[in-house]
Amino acid sequence: MPVDLLSGLSVALAPLLPWLVLGVLIGFALLVVLVAALRRARGTWLRLLAVAVLALALINPSLVQEKRDPIKDVAVVVIDDSPSQAIGDRRARTERAAEQLTERLKRFNDLEVRVVRSTEGAENGGSINETHLFDALNRAMADVPRRRMAGAVFITDGQVHDVPQVPGKLADIGPVHTLLTGDRDEGDRRIAIVQAPNYGIVGKPVELTIRVDDMPGHQSADAAVTLRQDGGTPGTIRVPVGRDVRVDLPVTHGGQNVLELEVEPAKQELTLANNRAAVVVNGVRDRLRVLLVSGEPHAGERTWRNLLKADPAVDLVHFTILRPPEKQDGTPIRELSLIAFPIRELFEVKLDEFDLIIFDRYRRRGVLPQMYLENIADYVRKGGALLETSGQGYAGPLSLYRTPLGSILPAAPSGQTVDRPFLPTVTDVGRRHPVTAGLPGDRLDAPPTWGRWFHQVDVTPNNGTVVMQGADNRPLLVLDRVGKGRVAQLASDQIWLWSRGFEGGGPQAELLRRLAHWLMKEPELEENDLRAHVDGNRITVERRSLTPDPRAVTITDPSDQTSTLQLTDDRTGRAIATVTAAAPGIYRISDGERTTLAVVGAVNTPELADVRSTGDRMKPVAEATGGGIHWVTDTDSGPNPGIDVRRTQPDRSQTGSGWIGLRANGDYTVTGVTDVPLLPVGAVLALVLGGLLMAWRREGR
């Protein structure tokens, strides 16, 4: 049970008997001395001295000297590396203030200084949407007991987005000071997306809500906003400042529809990065309308029907010509079908409402007049999609190629057919085309694992791209673009063998799905395209091409700085590379021929929502911990620029004009102990015996 006298020096009591026994003995001895005193016996005080010395000896006091090694306190300097720190002179002020602060802290021998940046150690290099300084602080002091914390200093513009909801919990780490790197009374203009849908129906507009703000006050009545969709021709509208404005965005295609918005600069501007915004709306088709015309009943009809009906988003209109007009068997016309074939309605009135038209084993029999076939050709040139699967009739005189459709079909029949087993294979260019690249079962250095077919129409491609070949390397699947539309020809009607599992079957479902989606211009199946995918702050650039393209792409970041990126071709028609975005915003990627956009960060990223330097966010933390908020510009001037730093007692003020304090905790470790008894045994015996002898002698007189 030590009793502190001086730092490192104490008196320890180690009684030789239990305190209860010791108390009884000392009490009895004192009672005897008291009786002697009441009887006025001689030598009473000498007996009291002997009892006192004996009691003190039984208590066994000793002088304990501790050898102490002081433990350094820990101070953390957190440097804000967020994108808003790149505005104006903030970055330079930050580095200068950090250098001055660390130099001042070096003079304290009892202080360990840890410097951490907001982007160090964070997942994916930190967030580019928000500034997380308290995360960096927690990482820096994760292995430090709170009693050793001297405090923390944040060097930031004040836009901190992870301030604890209960700042009082930080009080035990010492004062948290803030050095602001911006200027007082800053002004800025921004454009914000108040509301935007994630999805929209292709062909229908979606409604956005935008807002232009001049901070801190409204300095203009209105402002010009430039709008550009998918990198196209820009348009300009004027919107009132400080009010929500509705804007219509037409969803023109499936996949990502990107709308860029840029507001003109104001009189006061900190950055133009938040004068820009982007909205990404994914276009989806409401219902896909497919017209399937079968020239005659056959085993492959069910393959097409099952494929198209399996998708609940597909509205299928299917007609099969059961009997050609030249066939006469006495069956009344009214008994050949449940409903009349609405030829005029389908091929003249409502033709443009279909997304895809499929002719399956069709031949000229007078059912469809030439005028309607001409309508289909015009429908394709204006942006429609046509798929023709050839039966025996395509090689004969009744071929569709000898109709107005021949002007848009990419392959002409030679008049010959192949009626023997063959294995469909993917061509070299087909292995780069998204319709046939990587089909399940296809192998680069060996025959594919799917089953054989037995019939093929011999055709000669006049246009388009041959992606699959059949017997004797004859063209089997040809894809072509005609005007604004697309055409595909499959020179065989045997794909149903795969659906029946003949010789193990084949990837008919995947092939036909890709083929239909390519015909309907799904962006994911474009064979010559440049696109960008964003995952957090990583941009993956992908270029599809039917031939290897060695060109690098140019990336323009939100601050209009450009850089180049070399893509790596993977031999499947794709060249890919990944780059890490340093700031949120719109990145424009171009290879000189095509341009795509990548929107990094949230639509309304907090990092750019308000870039003015302010101490408002850190004020509750400063009040809870006793820290201070200082402007770097106030301490930059004078003969000794920089904030002054002092070591302070925990119960004293931690900040003042031009200075900040770091708590001195005085923690230590004990490395050794020296124990010296205060009453040596010989001295105790001499005092006790001497006192008793003197008392006896006194009584004997």
From TrEMBL:
Pfam families: GATase1_like. The keyword Transmembrane helix applies. Residues 628-658 are annotated as: Disordered. InterPro entries: Class_I_gatase-like, GATase1-like. It comes from the Bacteria. The chain crosses the membrane at residues 16-38, 45-64, 678-696. The keyword Repeat does not apply. Residues 372-499 form the Putative glutamine amidotransferase domain. Keywords: Membrane, Transmembrane, Transmembrane helix. SUPFAM superfamilies: Class I glutamine amidotransferase-like. This is Putative glutamine amidotransferase domain-containing protein.
